[in-house]
Amino acid sequence: MKQEKRETSAMLSWISEQFTRYKPERAVAVRALRHMRSADRKNLFSEDIMVMRTAEGYWFEYLIYEQLIRIAEQTKTIKKIVRKGTDVKKHKTKRQLGTNGIYSADKGDIRVRGNGQDLAEVDLLLFDNEDRVVFCEIVTSPSDLKDLEAEIIYKKKLFGYLFGQDNVGFILFSSVDIENTQVVRRLKSDPDNA
After folding, report:
1. If we measure between CA atoms, which residue out of 105, 89, 38, 30 comes closest to residue 63?
2. Which of 5, 57, 168, 186 has the most Cβ atoms closer than 10 angstroms to its Cβ?
3. Tell me: the pLDDT tens digits for 132-176?
4. CA dihedral (125, 97, 39, 37) positive or negative
5. In 10 A of CB 152, how many CB atoms?
6. β-sheet with 169-174: strand ranges across
7. What per-residue confidence (pLDDT) applies to 94?
8. pLDDT at residue 5 above 70?
């Protein structure tokens, strides 16, 4: 059990280190746009500020996704990144009542279903070289922090149950400075969080 925790922390440390040194280029930002649905790309230039801000949030999410794809090519630490956005093939059949498991929603979100209901949504999901799951949340506004801590605790328990892990890794990405908030300080105190 302690070995698993140390390995999860090693992967999280590696990702944190890579993101600290990673400088996104214009080409990465353009590639991030390719993961977005065309309607969301158009909304980046909307006259309605709320619609535009929502689209910017999606773009930031796909920018992180694209950066993770790029840095994952440099290591065997990250084995798989669950596809999202336009990288996911369209569903040919509608989900049936009672369908369970991990799936991609129509907007490209990664969701977990149980008893035919959505149980959780995560921004990114990846697996290390030992098939341990790590999930990521992306914050674009300090107001997003309100229920974040409770959500993270719930999702760690859910993924721990689903994948038989005592310790589940979690990474928080943010486009705003939230490092000194109480919520983030508490989350950072867990060695399985980055």
Report:
1. 30
2. 168
3. 999 999 998 888 788 899 999 999 999 999 999 999 999 999 888
4. positive
5. 20
6. 78-81, 124-128, 133-139, 169-174
7. 63
8. no
185 or 3: which leads in pLDDT: 185
Mean pLDDT of 4-15: 63
Q: Are 41 and 55 in contact (CB under 8 A)?
A: yes
User: How long, in residues, is the chain?
Assistant: 194
Domain ranges of the chain: 2-188
What does the block give as tokens for 182?
Answer: 């109480």
